[in-house]
Design brief:
The protein is α+β, with helices and mostly antiparallel strands and 149 residues long. The chain is built from five helices and four strands. Strands 2-3-1-4 form a four-stranded antiparallel β-sheet, covered by helices on one side.
Length: 149
């Protein structure tokens, strides 16, 4: 990946609806050259796809929490993931170092919905205990910035 690729990615992060022509003008390439580079970035997995960014609060899912998950015994990340997939309130989950086995990001429509989601999470057979932190406000939400200064 070179500087041109980084600049193309920056343009796509800023506005994924930009045309190849618009991106080309910004980075000094033709539209077909931008398309070839974008295709290569997709093929190599640098770009995983294109999507709309939705405000969860606008959809009524503005309550969120981060939950430390502590499991009984040695549980693999794949097994944890498999048990979390059926819970629609789980929007992300991470295996981590430290005392917890995983950190789970939950989103819900209300504090009562969040409480219900936490109870269903705690009911998962391998989970021993959880430690929850409810988000009060989002201070920073930054996409990756591939462009090098």
């Amino acid at each position: 990946m070179d500087t041109l690729d980084q600049r193309i990615i920056s343009r796509l992060v800023a506005d994924a609806r930009s045309s190849y022509s618009e991106i080309g003008k910004a980075v000094g390439l033709s539209a077909p050259a931008v398309k070839r580079r974008v295709d290569r970035l997709l093929d190599t997995g640098v770009l995983r796809g294109f999507t709309a960014v939705v405000d969860p609060e606008a959809l009524g899912w503005g309550t969120e929490a981060f939950v430390e998950v502590h499991c009984m015994g040695n549980v693999t990340p794949d097994r944890i993931r498999a048990r979390l997939i059926p819970l629609p309130e789980v929007v992300a989950a991470y295996s981590v170092t430290g005392a917890a086995d995983a950190i789970v990001h939950l989103r819900a429509a209300s504090i009562h919905h969040l409480e219900d989601a936490l109870e269903r999470l705690r009911a998962v057979d391998m989970i021993d205990r959880t430690v929850s932190t409810v988000v009060l406000s989002r201070l920073l939400d930054r996409p990756p910035a591939p462009e090098v200064a």
